[in-house]
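Need FIST domain-containing protein's 3D structure for a figure. Predict it.
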Amino acid sequence: MKALSFDTLDEVKRYLGEKPSSRGLVLFASAGAVRELSPHAPANAVLCSTKGEYTPKGYRNGVVSGFEYDADIADIVEILHPPVLSGDNLKASYHKVKDNVNAFLLLLCDGRAAMEETILSSLYFIDQEFKVLGGSAADDESGETYLYIGSRRVRNLGIFFNLTARTALIKENIYVPTGTKLLVTEADVFGRTVYSFNGRPAAEEYARVLDVKEDLLAGHFLSNPLGKRYEDDLIIASPMVINPDKSITFYSQLMPSTYLEVLSAADPLVVLEQTLREIPFKPAFVLNINCTLRDRLFLRDGLWAGFDDKMIGFCGNTAGFISYGEQYYKKHANQTMVLLLVG
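Structure prediction for FIST domain-containing protein:
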């Protein structure tokens, strides 16, 4: 796999016109850029709208990033709404690769439809150990997200890759438990809205445990999201907005009668050093998906330059994007980085 980066849309259009049909392609760009590029995209190209791009030179905003690969190693599957309508096609592609420990599914979703958990639950036939990663497409000023297979717009898609090279998935959290927990006592799961924690209005109780004024609570969301515990794994659930009735809408689903960990931020660059130390092999390619909320934090605190020094120093053949949520195996996360490593 080869990372790609383009500074202008004219460069991309020339590249698309010259690209041989034997090469597959995934490109990440702003919503407007994706719209403009889509008429020029060949059938084995995938386009995804983003909030920012990751390139062999590090984090950028307003460029086009992506990667190319041998087209014969991948099956591209449109995922319809509801996802169960695509079950047969997804199963057929999965069964081609399910016995390959290096195979994986790249899942790209509509970041405004709040369907990630529904899509993941529709993959019940996929083994728990099979690698699934992905990100959710970002929107434009009108709230539209854009995903294309060639010149055809789709709502969601998956690409099954049948690689011979070694692969691994890494998930990085830059948040740690504070020791305080909140019990979800009333919630609309599919609406991703929590009405009460510990039997009290959600915003009121969240502010109380953080020891902040309720009218200042939203300013603490970046620094103090919540974590869902799955055995030894911690999946971040990020608050989106406080509603007039003091309920809180999140970027992922939260279930009633479950405890959530209140989190605080660690030093992101120290965490990245630890992440890179623990990677099991030296990769030849890295796909890097970062949440838009990490992007906000990194921009606020001036962290991208230090992050890029470490990440690009580790592997220069790196591509990726800033997403509206991350898929890691069969879980949907927020405020997370997911890495695919290819040996």
